[in-house]
Structures are given as structure tokens and as C-alpha cells.
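Q: Fold this one first, please.
A: Sequence and structure below.
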Amino acid sequence: MSRKILVFVVTPLILCIGAIFLALRKSAQPEAVFQETDFELCSLPLPKGYPNSWTHAGIEYVKKEYNGYKYFLTCSPYPNYNDDYENPMLYYANPREGNLPPVEFIAYNNNPLQEDPGDGYNADPDVIFVDSSLYVINRPYIRPDSTWVNIQKSSIDSGSFTFDNPIPLYDNKQEPCNFGFTSSFRQTLISPSIIKYKDEYRIYHLATNSYNDNTDCKGVVVMVSDSIDGQHSYKYYTTGTISNCPAKPWHFDVFRYQDNLYAIICAYVHEDPFLEHVPIIARYVSHERKCFQYLAKSEDGINFTAFNKPLTTINSYRSSAFVREDGMFVLYISTLGYKPKGNVSEDGRNIMMAYKPFEQVLKEFKDN
């Protein structure tokens, strides 16, 4: 058989096998509440000199507006894992026509809120509105093992936003956060999420390094204070659990609906759902680290139970959500290596938004 004939026969065969493999791999993905077509790409201007890359989304909705705006979003650029740019940014917007959640945001004119801390990085910003003020928290990290959470309060000066200097709330080495855990455990306290719960302020952390070493999440660490921004005022309260999650929790965000707390869990999927059943093929296929987003519920404000159907299987990092007063669930995700139509991100790290009535979301879990 000549080389030309061989190529003519073999090439279509390889393409056919490849197409079947991709189809089977896609069909093995779990069904999700939101499909790719449900998401819209967000526009978030960056400061001069910053590459186009956005991650670690945090969202806050203000019912009666703050300085004329209702939606406030935090994120941090992380272009190709370069933490020199991983600094907290703030954006704001109003609903679109028909009360649709926004996808085009205005940048705070003094972004970033905090510069690179030096031999380390910033990480995991979050935003909250309480008592007529907007606050942003941030988690700086200094190598080899120092990390803490600080907070910045906003004010309005001549119609413009301004922010105070950051106030440290607690750190992982000194009281009140040095609560008897080992040093290696304290280093895994990531993704702080701040919320007012009953008459106190809480910051929830995940204790995990799952994305980096495939270990299990060690729990949900809860810090409590009676002051939202009192210096070193947050004290260790307890460590809760996340149960029923089909993958390994890596980042999360907490929000309230009616009398319960809910969490958006970014969970690390160690193995491709298709490849884990065909180890022979898995040996020859590249393994991309993936994270899906899951919803979890807490009835006691400490322990969370995940719904086993993902919110989305788009590869994504820390994401954030809330439920509007009309019952609309609004989800902002931070994608990884995902370049939809209109993409300008250099590494596929984008912020995207989807929405659906929350009762409909919950019904999908009940019917699953």
C-alpha cells in the first residue's frame, strides 16, 4: 500500500476516533443548572499596565443604591498565574433595561485598592454593604507563611468613592487567629467571605489546598466579631464542615436567602469524568485542572451541605452570587482558560454572569 493511500485511509480514521472521544468526554460531564449559553461576558476596565485577566469574583447588591449604584463587584487580575497583578479591584454598575443584571461595569478610579505587598501577593477580595457603607476585604500573603485579612471602608466625597487605609482584622500567626491549629493548617485558610449574620459579623474561610495537592478540604473556619472593622477584633468561633460535595472545595462565597445561609463552592475536579473510567486513554491525554461551581446550604450557619448537581461545569475559580428582593438568583463566575465570543482576556480568565429565579434553581435540585 502506498504512502498516499495509507494517509488517505488512516487520517479519516484518526479524525473519526477523535470526534467520538470528544463526544464521549463531553457527554460524561454532569448536567448543570446553567448552560454555557446562559452566561454573558462582563466588561471590566483595568488600570493602565495591567494585562487583561480577571478572577476571584465577589458581588454585592444594594437594594436602595449606594452613591447612585446597586451592583458592586470585586475581583483581582491573575494573568497566567502572575501574582504581581493579583490586586483587589472594585467596580460598580446599575441594572440594564428590564432590571437585567449588569455586565458592563465602571471601574473605581483609584484601582487597585491595594498594591502588591512585596514578597507575596494579594488574594480573594470580597465586598459587603452594611450600615450605609461599602467595605472591601482582602487577604495579603507574605512568603513563606504569613497571611492576614484586612478591610477598607468607603466614603463618598463630592460624589466620588474614596477608601480608607486597610485595617487588619486578624492574621494567621498571632491572636486572635492563632487558635491552636498547626502552622500548615493555618496556611490553608483561603477565600474569606464576609457577611452580617444575625447580630454579628462573620468571615468564613475554607481550610484547603485541594487545587494544589489534591488533598481534602479540612473544613469551614468561622471568625466572628461584633464590629465589622475593629482592628484585630475577629476571634475564632468554630470549624464547620462541607458535606455531600462531589468534588473537593477550593474557594467559596457565602450569601443569605430567607433564614438560611448558602454558599457558592468552587470545587476542584481532580479527574476528568470520562477519563477516570478509561485509564488506558487517560495515560495519553493531558490533564487540565478543572473546577466546577456547586451550591450548598447551611441551616445552622456553620455546616454546609452541597447539592450534588453543579451550577455550572464551565471551568471556573472563586465565584459569587446573591438573591435579589424579587427572588432572582444572580451568579458571577470567574472562568479559567475559557474564551467565549467577545473574549479579550489573554489567558481565558473572565468574569461572566447568569441569572435565574432562585426557587427554580432549588427546584432543579429537588427534581434531580
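Q: Good. Now the second chain.
A: Here it is, same layout.
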Amino acid sequence: MPYFFWCEMSNFKVKTKYGNIELGYRLFSKIILDAVSDSGSSLLLSTSKSKLINHSSYKAEIEDNRFFELTLMENSYDLKIFGQIEFGKSISKNTEMVISLLNQRLKDILGIYPRSLSIVITGIISQNKTAKKHLEVKR
């Protein structure tokens, strides 16, 4: 169990009884991408400005951190993920599936739950058009 977090530039550090562990944005990107794809939801990751993230290569996905915001506190962290959902799909059902799986994976890997975990729906996709929205589902 981590004692506390602190931040230096783009890396986050966790001090444990075994020593210091450095966590970069790539780790959080990988956890989020795996949780979204494994949940089976129709959530598509996007930026906060409602632009879909290019999923053409796995390496580009991991190195891209525009689809989430991470805020670090003394003993916890807040995570906000941006995404779009297909028209006709249940927003609450799809976001709850992702939040549940992501919450559990973050606990397994980092040792603590996030203080708050939210998914911001930036748009609804219908055929080739996107209707911009700003709906936040939080746990």
C-alpha cells in the first residue's frame, strides 16, 4: 500500500515501504485503454474538445494522453476520461461498465482506489455526424 504520491514533471512517484516507484502517463494510458477495450462498451475515447483519438496503431494509443486528465493529491488521485458514445446506446450502462472495470484494475495495479473517477461524454456519434455534448458520469 502506497504511503503517498508526488509529482515531478510528467512522472508520478509512489513511495512504498519497498522504495520509490515511478509511474508515467504511459502506464495510465495502458490501464485505461485495456479497461475500455475489455469492458465491451461502445465508448470511444476522445479529447476534451470532442475529437476522436486515432486508434490506428497500439503504440500511438499508449503514448497519447489527451483522452484523460490525472490530478494528483497527497494520498490519492482523480482521474477524468473523455469519450464519445454511439447513438442509441445506454450512456449509464456503458460508462458504469468501464468505471467498474477501471476502478478494479487501478486498485490491483496501484494499490489504492482513485478518489474520484469520472467519464465525460463529449459527444454522441450518429452515422457520420457527431452531436457535441458534455455529460459527466462520476463515481
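Q: Anything worth noting on the second one?
A: Strands lie at 4-8, 11-16, 19-23, 43-45, 68-72, 77-86, 116-126, 129-138.
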